[in-house]
Amino acid sequence: MRTGLQRFIEGRVESAVSVVSLSPLPGGTMRHAWAVDLDVPSGPLAGSHRLIYLQDRGGAPLGSRLSREDEFRVLSVMHGAGVRVPRPYWRVPAGDASGVSPGLIVERVEGETLARRLLQEPAFERARAHLLAQVGEELARIHAVPTDALGCLARPALGKTPVEGQLADLEGMLRQIGEPHPALELALRWLGGRVPPSERVVVVHGDYRLGNFIVDPARGLSAVLDWELSHLGDPGEDLGWVCMRFWRCVDSPGARGLGPRQRFFDAYAGAGGQRLDPEGALFWEVFGNFRWAIVTLGQAYRHLSGAERSLELASIGRHCAEVEWELLRFLRRR
Fold it and tell me: Using a CB cutoff of 8 Å and minimum separation of 24, what contacts does 7-13 make?
């Protein structure tokens, strides 16, 4: 792989380069991650570069996952707009002559991503004091980026709100999996009868949560990762996703997070975001949990169907029961 990466990068910078080191990093369910230390002796990129190669491993939790080209475009626009994202360097296309697998090469931003460490370790006590507010402010910046620069993102169907199309897609995935899940059927019916009007269409990150934030112990939020699920939609989608108990971003009954959700909402609104009313906040949190339940089933299905044998994917499926319980807790209050 080292030789292939070196060959690929040399073709992009039109100069000899040296891959000083290459080592694996903890990755996700869609990509393997590799730390790459690169030395470029001459040219516009002359100097040392600390990079990450995000190597595709196939599959997707949702059919809406972006192509590598479109994700690279989103990263480029966000970086140009001043959003805290890793600088995108290159996209590796399928079938490249270098022999390198498809993926993205981006800046390696130093910091921590693991939620457990961010929530518990003394080293991040200073960052925890203001991290939730930073997360809210950064989300407002993301939602303020003009959508006309991102023609690669599909527009909602004419006459329909973005979430109506998403509910149809999620229901299709549930039917394809073919398992009986009465709690999810109940949630789907509940959501379908309460779709709020969409007053504003923005770039939705799609997976905005602890685990996708790089955090510096002193400065707090350094970068937002994993944009492959970004799309055009209602800003409430990201707001509700952050508030899910599963991610531990905000305090929930029996699960302490970074702080009260009102702190997050206030920071988002203070940076120009739209404040949700209680009914809207409830809808989007129920929607987020329903969507996450479908994702967990889909990841397990990748394993059970034989498409990608992986204990990691299989284990994700067990979380569906936890999310179903959370959905029933919400719906019981209505």
Answer: 7/97, 7/98, 7/99, 7/100, 8/90, 8/92, 8/96, 8/98, 8/100, 9/38, 9/90, 9/105, 11/97, 11/98, 12/90, 13/40, 13/43, 13/44, 13/45
* Joined tokens for residue 165: 């199309």
Domain of 102, CATH number, reads 3.30.200
Mean pLDDT on 172-180: 93
Please say which residue of 107, 128, 150 terminates a domain. Answer: 107
Share of the chain above pLDDT 70, in %: 97
213-216 and 220-224 strand pairing: antiparallel
Residues 173, 276, single domain; the answer is: yes
Number of domains within the chain: 2
Structure tokens at 106: 């981006």
* Same domain assignment for residues 208 and 230: yes
Pairwise CA distance, residues 34 & 54, whole Å: 7
- pLDDT more than 90, % of the chain: 81
- For residues 130 and 255, membership in a common domain is answered with yes
What length is written for the chain? 334
Alpha-helix residue ranges (DSSP H) falling in 145-181: 162-177
SS3 of residue 203 by DSSP: strand
Residues 273-290: tens digit of each pLDDT = 999 999 999 999 999 999
Q: How many other CB atoms are there within 10 angstroms of residue 202's CB atom?
A: 24
- Give DSSP secondary structure letters for 16-82: --EEEEEEEE---SSEEEEEEEEEE-SSTT-EEEEEEEEEE-S--SSTTPPPHHHHHHHHHHHHHTT
Phi-psi region of 15 (alpha: psi -120 to 50; beta: other; left: phi over 0): beta
Domain enclosing residue 327, as ranges: 115-332
| CATH number of the domain enclosing 277 | 3.90.1200.10
What pLDDT is stored for residue 2 in this prediction?
93
